[in-house]
Amino acid sequence: MSFREKLSWGVLLTTSAVWGFYFVRLGLRAADGLLTQDLVLWTMGVCIGFSIAAQVGFSILAAVSTSKAERAVVDEREQGASLKASYTAFLTMSGTLGALSAYGYSYALRHPDMLGPDPLAPALLLAANGFIFALALSEVVRHATLITLLRRVG
Q1: How far is CA 43 from CA 23, 97, 145, in A?
Q2: What is the 3-state secondary structure (H, E, C) of the chain?
Q3: What is the pLDDT along the chain (154 residues), one digit of tens a residue?
Q4: Is 39:129 a contact under the CB 8 Å cutoff?
Q5: How far apart are CA 135 and CA 143, in angstroms?
């Protein structure tokens, strides 16, 4: 397994686990009516911290388990796979943000009072979490695509 494939596995596993936990936790709290801004901020902070620590750990493991000469080599196959994976991730993020925007707009038309008397805080909370979801999903797609392409070609 190449150095870049090891790094992609680390990002794929970390992103899937951490942000999957984040959105499941927030979804369950929202369904119970217990979603607060403090809960979101604390959960997000913990998830960001854990994500950074886990990815640094995966990077160290990948570096230790790969020779220095192999880490320095980037062949055309890896560059091509990386470009295709990035394009797929961009399309995923664009589509996700477009779908979330359309859904939010249509929902707001049907429920004009959904945000209550202070619409700014809930709207920003929803928008920020929608953007985080799109970023996390696009990263998962990018690294899953990269791993698939590297294994298929190489």
Answers
A1: 10, 22, 28
A2: CCHHHHHHHHHHHHHHHHHHHHHHHHHHHHHHCCCCHHHHHHHHHHHHHHHHHHHHHHHHHHHHCCCHHHHHCCCHHHHHHHHHHHHHHHHHHHHHHHHHHHHHHHHHHHCCCCCCCCCHHHHHHHHHHHHHHHHHHHHHHHHHHHHHHHHHHC
A3: 888 889 999 999 999 999 999 999 988 988 887 877 788 889 989 999 999 999 999 999 999 998 888 877 778 888 888 899 999 999 999 999 888 888 877 777 776 666 566 655 666 777 788 888 999 999 999 999 999 998 886 5
A4: no
A5: 12
